[in-house]
Amino acid sequence: MAQAPRFEPLPADFSSAPAAAEESVLALWRSEDTFAHVQRARAGGEAFVFWEGPPTANGKPGIHHVLARTLKDTVCRWQSMLGKRVERKAGWDTHGLPVELEVEKQLKISGKPQIEAFGVAQFNAKCRESVWTYKDEWERLSERIGYWLDYANPYVTYDATYVDSVWYVLARMHKAGLVYRGKKVLPFCGRCGTGLSSHELGQPGVYKDIPDPSVYVRFVLAQQPSAERESLLAWTTTPWTLPSNVALAVHPEREYVRARVALPVPKGAAKGSAGHEILWVVAERAKVVLGEHEELGRKFGRELVGTAYVPVFDVAVPEVEPGAWKPDPAGSFKVYSAEYVTVDDGTGIVHQAPSYGADDWEVARRNRLVVRQAVGAEGRLLCDIAGAPEGAKFGPAVRGTFFKEADKALAKDLKNRGLMFKDSEETHSYPHCWRCSTPLFYYAAPAWFVRTTALKERMLEQNRRIRWVPGEVGSARFGEWLENNVDWNISRDRYWGTPLPFWTCGTCEHERSVEGAGELARLAGKLPENFDFHKPSVDTITLPCEKCGGTMRRTNAVLDCWFDSGAMPYAQHGFPHVKGSAEKLRDQFPASYICEGLDQTRGWFYTLHAIGAFMTLEHPELGDGPAYSTCLVNGLVLDKDGVKMSKRLGNIVNPWEAIAKHGVDAVRWYLVGSAAPWLPKRFDPAALAEVQRGFFGTLANSYRFFQEYARIDRFDPADARIPQVAARPEIDRWLVSRTQSLVADVRRRFSDYDLAGGARSIETFVVDELSNWYIRRNRRRFWKGDSGADKLAAFATLHGALRAVSLLMAPLAPFTAELLWRRLEPGRGSVHAQLAPVADERLVAPELERGVEVVQRVVTMGRALREKVGHKVRQPLRALHVRSSDTAALELLRSRFASELVLDELNIKGWGSLGADDGKLCRLTAKANFRTLGKRVGGRMKAVAARIEALDPAQLALLRAGQAITLELEGERIEVTPEDVLIAVESTASFEVETDGRFVLWLDLELDDALVAEGLAREAVNRINGLRKDSGLAVEDRIALELAPGDDTLRAALAAHEPFLAAETLATRVRFVAADALPASEAWDLGRGHTLRARLERA
RNA sequence: GCGCCUGUAGCUCAGUUGGUUAGAGCACCCGCCUGAUAAGCGGGAGGUCUCUGGUUCAAGUCCAGAUAGGCGCACCA
User: Fold this and answer.
1) Structural contact between residues A937 and A944, judged by C-beta atoms closer than 8 angstroms
2) A430 touches strand B (CB under 7 A)
3) What pTM did the predictor assign?
């Protein structure tokens, strides 16, 4: 016979210091290389494709990363346990502004001129280093939280093979006609000197409320029709755009009023004493903007078109070539019509600065207006406009002033010159650069675009095939985003990024794309030694123009780094340039599952989707579906008061601290199990402690219990003498049945991405059913001396349940599961290499599960009743009486199994009466079963319900006997079956009962001498065992006991129950001595006036 | 302004296709147990299911509106 396994105890400090135990698991995984082993074991499995959204390693990971990574890890582990091959390639996002910004900070430089001065090559070298600042921290945390990822072979977005691949994607898009170069008004960051894409504008924290000026400016008519000065009144919140003004716009179909308004007067002077002026505003706004005024006339907007006015600033502002049209200087400083003008605020007259607004740009294009730029790409004035008055706290609006800072000086200047009608401040939400926080401005700059609008329908259609969890993120949020899709600005006038693979000819403007380093080498003749894709070396490569023979130079820009990460499905394999990458891509596309934060809707979720929509067209072998088929979205992690974590508030939870204190399994379990993943989550350390204690503590105790006795008895799960499940006692079959139900439930939920639901199911099972019911009920079976079939059955049942739990919890709590599994199944390797259990339907016993439910219900009521009547459970009582209308439940209670459970739990000698109704102590009441009847009788439900409540006992008896009865209602006959009537019992007794409508319970409270004696014996056992514990005895220590009862009744009672007493206290010898023989010991009060002294020693 | 989500006990959350008396954990109060023991268990108290209206025989659940919070979109001339 094989050696029985030694069930090792859990680490002694598992409950008090779980982190140490987890570290030991990590050490084991490291030494065994468990991850690699599991991956090898699944090498032949069907692929479950997971893509890791690449983090940037130049920032520290936080607690929200623990949530996201746990969700990723749990699903991957689960799928792996389903036998799937789950490749888990790590990835790093290494390009882009955030990196450059970090390096600028490091070098204590700021802005493009300083970078250029520092040297682009050196700057990019610094960037390449900087991206790894926190790589170790990321890897350490990922390892510590059990996030299994292949960090040995990550994809890195700056790697040559990666860039080579991204070039391929871009070049294919270019060849498909989807890439174009345009001049567009874009949100622009002056500090970074580059435009932002619309999804960068969607990053959290971009829109911030800041005070903006709100100014009403007079545009004085060039032709003054009367002696009183006449102006068009325009409103703006961006005075800095006024020097670049070239036109005004009005709505053609709106009415504008010519209003006579009193000029402002000094305090105390009569209104109008300073004279009047005439102002034009849209009719709807006249009252609000002008206040008291005299209406002199009205004109439609279209009638105002062509009206000329005097420029507000008489300075030479640089003009720029719009490119798309030839400007006509004669058109400047006139009124034009534009449909977009609204009357919700302002004056209905909109000042036009084409370079700084998309709508303005469009008006300028249609009317061939001149484009003036007083503010350049750095966000600073390109010429002197206005000085600051003496003593002003603000500076002048001179060349070099940052646009936001020019506002005050300009406003002051307008005021001094009498052109300011009204001047105030309003708080607006204003966009800021998502990384450097500089206020953005809209600016017309040349940029490269991907015509994603051409893919809109395809993206919408493919989106409908993605399973979003939760669904509304896809249907509403993402869908809406796609509906409003605009072309993707992929160019950034920066340094550290994938260079755009587009070359243009200086002579004939011919433009071409390059698919990768190979093609570049072919076109250029050869590439320099150690060719690097990055700036500046790539810019040294020129190509001969295939059209005119001129010289083609690469466009200066680099790629939006979001494109990098969106291209990871292809570039992580180096597709198509790396050998074998085509096969690899086909195997690993589309993703079965991705999971990131809600903020990625416009980030990675979009870029993957958009590029996927194109690549699946280019490469039909990739299928016609979306790039990913399931997307699990997780919400924000807030602090315990529901406040967003921020450095400023100091409420950031350090993941390391939480992990050190409670162990990462508790953190994982809490984060995933406490609520749906997409809901904002509060991180409450107190709740975390509760998870650790309540669930993990109980589970550990359950294992400890098993382990202790299994070891003593050398239990072997492979023992041939273990009875088949069918031959085990009911309570065992019950737990086996519940175990199977749990397996089925968790399988369904985990496979359905309902991780929280699965966690809850496991937790309920462990705490309520396994620990609090099964183990508590069956403790004695494990203690008893013999090693017979019953004991083996108990061991096997408990072992099976713990085994199932360790397997089911493995994806979510990988450490604890491993600790348990390795002890329960020594020599079988890692729990993570196992296949998930499959429920055995044949072992599910619904009648037993129902029976235990009934038992638990009656026991709970019985305990409440005992409490009510003041008899503690130690005092045995003669009988328990039960009344119920539920005949099936009564039948269950009568079974030996249930009877034993109930009577033992409640310490009662036997059933008193167990019946439906004796007509005296309780009464039956009937209620309609709305669920079954409702559908059938519909509108007559109320009447039927009333009739059922009024049924007489004879009819109830019929129903209880299983017969249907017929009700007459307004001439109609309604058949009522037993199922349609819910019969409840109600007590009519004058003494204490416990009832819940289903059962009525009462106790036989009469105590005879025998019951009292037994109660006393139990009291004695209780005290003696307390003493045992206080004396520091081990559980299996035998004792010699000396008892000194205070009176003869007690002496007789204890003597009568001596075998019981001895057995319960493990006394090998019990000796009764005189009361004064044990003077040193404490006298216990056993109640009813009895006292007892005792002494014990180890036998 | 528009869209989505959330609002259930003091706190954190469950609540299946509408159906009898809305549940759990924590905290609180009162007990119990003591061979899992620096654990464990039971009982009690605690709810106008945010509000209003509607559909329905029946609404925490469906519909409409309001309200509060969150997230997103748009506008911000």
Assistant:
1) yes
2) yes
3) 0.84
